[in-house]
Amino acid sequence: MINVLIADDEILFRNYMLTAVDWNELGFSICCVAQNGEEALNSLTSFRVDIAFLDINMPYADGISVASRIRSESPDTLIVFITGYSDFTYTQKAIQLKIEDYLLKPFSPEDLTKLLKQLKQKTALLRSRQKAERQANQLMMEQYFNSLLGFCEQSPGITSPSLFPDSPWNISEYFMAAVVEIGYLGVIESSHENLPLWKFSIQNCLEETLSVPGKLFIFNIPCDRIVVLFNFKDYASAATYPYSRLQKAADLIRSWFSVTLSIGIGELEKGIDSIPVSFKKALLALQARSTKEEGNLFYHKDTDLQFSKGFYNLELHNQVMFALRQNNLSELSEILEGLEKEILTKHYDSDTVQTIFTSIFSLCLAFVMEKDGNVMDILDQDFVRYQSCFAGSDIRESCRFLYSLFEKVLARYSSIKSTRSLDVIRKVQEYVAGHYMEDTLSVEDIAAYVILDSSYIRKLFNKYMKCTITNFILTTRMEHARQLLEDGETNITYIASLTGYKDSGYFSKCFKKYYGVSPKAYSHLRSCP
């Protein structure tokens, strides 16, 4: 319905306006009726007004004053002046205020009906434009944040956050990220075709229920996950924010859609550049959750995994998704062999082992959903039986099961159909693996190696691998740096030189931005029992 405000100081005329036409039948709802300008102004704070019928001559505040206020606070509201003066004394001012039309008293019901139909068409066009603008702004926001997290290249048209509808887009330097993961059991029991609708509905529900002292940004990322980014107005607001509201939102969504959410909550970080750190911590909280835990919220600060184990899981996630997206079964086999060795050598406890295997299982399902596939076709219509395979203690059997699942998935949902595309991506990865230690390594170097335009390989890599080449180089360097620390190396300058950094200070800054702690702090945490 289209909300209408009627403001006129003559009671007989107000009654005439209310009864001259069937407003509801025409698609209109009269949300407020005012007898003077002051009442009209007060009603603007309580109602969303689409169309305002204003008498030019009213006590306390005339129609011109009310129209000026509407234009400043709600520029898309359509305004119609009502006047009994045929000389149109206020024509010049009305033109400046861009009013839609005049109603010259007296007028017939037919005249009013004709005008309302015209206004209805204008309102429909206006709402269509507003919807398109909202969608464009949402896409722009998603692309910016996905580029910030390394999932895609930043568009030339979005080179600065200042291009957002609000400038500057952030209200402060305090950020906290949460990652929402949809429970696949709920998806499977219904239909995977419902997933896009569910994601849209979940985002709307989160926006409606999560009031925050500051700003809230909600956007999609690969693997059918949703990121909730809190931008608090100050530190005090962040420190006292009740994150239990996320639990209430999860409970509402479960009652409405029979979908269970798992929500990993990162830690408060300062600065736009630190958003990826909070995001990674939220991912770690998700991956470190125990299958025995109750509830939907998992806090990074509460994770009991050893620090190095947590980031081992995060890097394992990257490796598995990269291999799936490039249809590399042999790489997946090597990953599982390394995982088996890691678990047996470092004697991970049973809860940690089950968490890791369940996480990889979920990644495989996420890949199938990413390819618009049907998970039940892969799981032979028995999700629970497959999920329970990891409850036992046989590490080798669990790895063999995952390999057979990977084999089945890639046979049906190969990520890359073009052999040429696959060759290019493999060459890019091979070149990075052989040259990540060079501080001059660039996308242009890689393009020269594969004899293709750099913009083309950027698009190709991002399309299939769901991340940028620049971020892949960074990930490769950081994983090697972490491994050197894991192996006991403590000379930061030496580690920097082996991973492509001339300046050890800059390397430490990059390491802290990627992992959330400095190399020295990581080394200390690794050595703690």
TrEMBL record:
The entry's keywords: Cytoplasm, DNA-binding, Phosphoprotein, Transcription, Transcription regulation, Two-component regulatory system
Record-linked SUPFAM superfamilies: CheY-like, Homeodomain-like
Gene Ontology MF term list: DNA-binding transcription factor activity; sequence-specific DNA binding
GO cellular component, one term: cytoplasm
Entries under InterPro entries matching the protein: CdaR_GGDEF, CheY-like_superfamily, Homeodomain-like_sf, HptR, HTH_AraC, HTH_AraC-typ_CS, Sig_transdc_resp-reg_receiver, Tscrpt_reg_AraC-type_HTH
Statement: the UniProt record of this protein carries the keyword Phosphoprotein: yes
UniProt-listed GO biological process terms: phosphorelay signal transduction system
Superkingdom in the source lineage: Bacteria
Main location class: cytoplasm
Record-given protein name: Stage 0 sporulation protein A homolog
Species of origin: Murimonas intestini
